[in-house]
């Protein structure tokens, strides 16, 4: 009989440098699993700044070629009604300022919008009311609906005939960068129409948000919506079809729940899932352990480590890893029967506390169950796990399947 799997993904928990939050954290429970199991490194090479969407998608055994796009996954995560002809775009509240530059540099005296904070300070104050103010638009025959999801995140759904996801992002993906005009990435008239509608949406939203009364109560104004990852419905083979296992997911992150829904996993509801450092870790782990009763494979995704990284706080990230060890891994060790269950732990990508950006490279992993032959790794951190095997991210699920056979 195959063992069941609890797969814990610590989003962005891995880091760079000789000393990292993992290496400096006190985490006796996770280190016990690493010392008595198989530990090593997983290699992520999916871009200069690996996106959580593609990283987790591949980590769960899907190929890069199957990736449907971040916008579609965010829409799935927000539990929107998906229609084949619609285009879905990842959106988030941001902070911009108007800068008038020399005409010789820009060719115009018109002000440029420069991003001062891509996530509007990660402050949710007033965002619900702002979301209502930009909820629905009709532009050039395109219906555009904005849905706020978790924290500063949202989804923009475009509904019309003759739309295309083949458009660029308005988000330059860097603080201090200019907001980009969306352009068609091919000569298709559908893409041209979609890009034009998105630019007009952005202009209208800026007019509304920059003077919205809710910004009076915020330290950092939320005066713009950045757009990226336009995509459409795409058929994806289910997790059950791929691996013969029934699966569930416990996560607050919309993109993780979107990946789960696209793979026909059950998305488990729980209370207190904030997707940040205040999330209810105890509730999450108990829900995940309970889900093992009715499923063969359960994903437990924790986003707070990535949030601490984006805040560029080494100590906060270390503290949260220690909290995960106390609240999550202590209960895993106490409640799980390792004769019947295998636990796997890894991260989707590096997120550096130095600059708050996602990085390609190597993240530690641990696999533990009763009867597994331990290797030489003694702790779950970047340096210690160099003593173990190195597995490409696209091969990691295959490795897990080998251990549960």
Short account of what is shown:
The chain has 13 helices and 16 strands.
How do the helices and strands line up, and which of them pair or pack?
Blueprint: E1 4-10, H1 21-24, H2 28-36, E2 38-44, H3 52-59, H4 70-77, E3 87-99, H5 103-106, E4 112-117, H6 127-133, E5 136-139, E6 142-148, E7 153-159, H7 189-209, E8 224-231, H8 239-243, E9 247-250, H9 254-262, E10 266-267, H10 281-291, E11 297-302, H11 304-310, H12 314-335, E12 341-346, E13 350-351, E14 358-359, E15 361-368, E16 390-392, H13 396-404
Helix pairs in contact: 4-9, 10-12, 11-12
Strand order of the largest sheet: 10-9-11-1-12-15-2-16
Alpha-carbon Rg, integer: 22 Å
Q: Shape, please?
A: globular
Element string (H = helix, E = strand):
EHHEHHEHEHEEEHEHEHEHEHHEEEEEH
Counted by DSSP, the helix tally is: 13
Percentage beta strand: 15-25%
Uncertain stretches = none
Q: What does the average pLDDT come to?
A: 95
CATH architecture of the largest domain: 3-Layer(aba) Sandwich
Number of domains: 2
CATH level 3 topology of the largest domain: Alkaline Phosphatase, subunit A
